Amino acid sequence: MYWKSMNDFLHMGGYGLYVWVSFGITFVSMAIEILLLRARKLSNEKIKDLL
Amino acid sequence: MNLFKYASPQTFYPLAGRLIPFFAIGAGLFIIYGLYIGMLVAPTDFQQGDAYRIIYVHVPAAWFSMFLYVVMAVYAILGLSLNAKLSFMMAKSIAPTGAMFTFVALITGAFWGRPTWGAWWVWDARLTSELILLFLYIGYMSLQAGIDDTRRSDRASAILAIVGVINVPIIYFSVKWWNTLHQGSSINTSGSSMAAVMLQAMLIMALGFWLYSAAVILTRVRREIEDRARATAWLNEFKD
Question: How close A43 gets to chain B, by Cα (Å)?
Fold first, then answer.
């Protein structure tokens, strides 16, 4: 483990904002892609039931 | 063994369905492990401080933004030359994931550029060619969505994908060919300039992003197969 404390980790040597926003945008983008695919699956299943 | 057995949507659909869980679980495990090594174990960088840690998402995203474009273009070529429906569906299913990684590479690049260069954005060769890649993906998807006839939209967008592939080597070699603010490659044919633990974390993240791409693209191609099967079933009902 490189960090001394939780605060140290979150602070990222003064670059916390840049680092955490970057990681946040990356994983939120991936999560949105997964949610959109899930919505498409549900709508395809619904249409299949209707036909 | 018949290599072309899985070239038809009917046989590929269940195969993709069986593969997706393995890719998805693998993606989760590698990304968590990569984040653990990169964020908790790896030391800080003596030049860039902890801002360098953005590399663990920025570089894998940038790699896959380019790699997925090439794969999309290969499927476009296969689709056009073999008249293979599944190849067009694969190309179409790759585009949104490629566009997402391009967007992520650009945004995380801005959040890395600001503390290290003092600028969110500069119009240099690397950044500009990566922005063009985003426009190519958006153009491809718009063309796909803009033409109602599937056969025509597949063919027209495939041509755009193939022509646009010229941009990928331009992105890749831009840091060599032009003077740019962007740093050179950390990994090239002569080896790596990164510390072993940092390189390890970045490669594990890249493997995770690869498995993630496989899982979401196969999921999307299954939805695409469903959509197109429904369209033809609908048509068949009106035949007699």
Answer: 10
